[in-house]
Structure formats: structure tokens, C-alpha cells
Amino acid sequence: MYGEFQDKQPAKKKLKTAEGKSRCYRFNNSWLQDLRFKDWLTKRETKTDNKNEYAFCKVCNMSLVAHKNDLSKHQLTERHQNNMKQIACNAKITDMITKRGGEATKRAEIKLCGLLAVNNLPFLLMDTLAPLCANIFPGSNIAKDLSMKRTKATACMKEALGKNFKKQLSTELQEPGRFFSIIMDETTDKSTSKQCAFTVIFFKESVKTRFFDMVETPNGDAETLFNTLKGVIVKQNIPLSNLVGYSSDTTNVMFGEHNSVVS
Questions:
Q1: H helix count then E strand count, the chain
Q2: Nearest one of 95, 92, 111 to 103, comparing CA atoms
Q3: Residue extents of the structural domains in the chain
Q4: What angle do CA 93, 94, 98 make, to 5 degrees?
Q5: Cα 48 from Cα 196, distance rounded (Å)
Q6: What is residue 16's DSSP assignment?
Q7: How many Cβ atoms sit within 10 Å of the Cβ of residue 106?
């Protein structure tokens, strides 16, 4: 529609002041917020051979004198009003595109990942579960938009749910007076790198037990295990003064009288 209009140069207006000098017109940026003009008005950036600035009508594709009275008159012209009606009837490209993966769908996918975690189910189940939901609930747009299988479920669990709950737990344990106990357990399989798993127990409205962290250690001697225990707490900015209890298996490296984690 816009191509059929010529970029017309408006007739030059010259108003003389009391001293007899020509008046220069300046574009007022506040017009862009005026409800009468903001849908079609913009400033013309093309330089002219005089000092005047010009407005530009986007729907009529023509320049206008930067004068509020002229803008108001142009708004009332038959040509402008017809063009505005045609613009109002045009559908936006963004409205023609079906949006997928909205907030409701994202929440559904996260809840399905939570289902796997809470019930200790395999990620492989998602290859069947998501298509099954779409088949069972054909009238649900949320079910139709589900696009999660094992790979995406794994990433969602590690990068979204896991990190979010870990941050939430750390924030709770950072509170002054939020005392907690920690349970430490190390692997004994010499064929792989040693790992230490940590669980915390604390009170918040009720006694809560939460998985805290799992890290690898270069070896299983007492000093290394002690530094690992201290490191996982300090790394998350949790004050050591909040730690009031420690538990693990009763091996010498953990509870021995000499050279143990406890000692």
C-alpha cells in the first residue's frame, strides 16, 4: 500500500515575526506520545536545504510541515482516514504465527521432570510420556505443545530444577541461626574416582532432610575429606557457625581417634 504514494515535499510556509524574520519549524518529540499522532507520525530524517524540520506520515508516505496545527489538519483528511482504516484491517505477521512453548507448557514440562525426580523414574520414560499426554488429552493445547524427551528432561533437571533447588537450600542455610547437621558418605570403589555425597538436616517449620551436594575427591585420606567437607559449605557462603552436627559411617578415617575427619 505504501509504495503507491509519492514522498511529497510540503509547501514551504514562511511566517514572519514582529522583526520581519522567517520562522523556522522544529519537530517536537512530545508529539510522538500524543494519542492523536503516535500511531502514524515520525520525524523525517532527510536533510533539506533550509533550516526547517519536517514530520512524516507513515500511512500516507508523505512529509508534513512540523507544525501541530498542520498535523491536526492532515489527520482529518479523507486520504489519511482511509489509509488508517486499511492499516487497522491488516493482520500482523506475528499474529499469524502460532506461538508454541508458552509459560503453561513450560510449567507442565518442569512438573513432568519433577515427577521423574520424586519417584526415581528413568529419563527414558519421557520418550513415551510426552506423546502419551498429547494422545490422551487431544483437546489440550498444553499437551499438544509438549516437546520434551529424555535429552531435554536431563538438561531441565540439571540446569533448571537442580540449580534452583540448590540455590534455594543454600539461601535457607545462610540465615543466621539456621543450625543444621550434615551427613557425609564417600564411595569405596577404587576403580573409579572417589566421590563424597552430602545430606543436610535442619528445622524450618518441621525437620527437613535435603540432598546437599556431591563432589569428587582426589583421594580418601582424612585431611582431604575434611577439606572437602569444609569446602562444600564455604563455597555456598554458609557460615560454619551454623553447622552443629556431623554424621558418617564409623570407619577410622571418619571417626578414628587420630588423623580422622572428626579429630
A1: 10, 7
A2: 111
A3: 2-90, 103-169, 174-255
A4: 110
A5: 75
A6: B
A7: 15
> At 101, which amino acid appears?
G
Q: Which residue has the cell 479523507?
A: 78
* Spatial separation of the C-alpha atoms in residues 187 and 93, rounded to whole Å: 58
Residues paired with 64 in a beta bridge: 55
Return the C-alpha cell found at 51.
Answer: 533550516
Single-letter amino acid, residue 224: T
Residue with cell 530444577: 161
Q: For the packed helices 68-75 and 78-89, what is the interaxial angle rounded to 10 degrees?
A: 70
Q: What grid cell was written down for 34?
A: 500524543
Q: What is the chain's pLDDT, residue by residue, as a tens digit (263 residues)?
A: 444 444 455 555 555 544 555 677 788 888 888 888 888 888 887 666 567 788 889 889 888 888 888 888 898 999 998 888 888 777 666 655 555 558 888 899 999 999 998 899 999 999 999 899 989 998 888 888 888 889 999 999 888 888 888 888 888 888 888 888 888 887 766 656 778 888 888 888 889 888 888 888 877 777 878 888 888 888 888 888 888 888 877 776 677 677 677 76
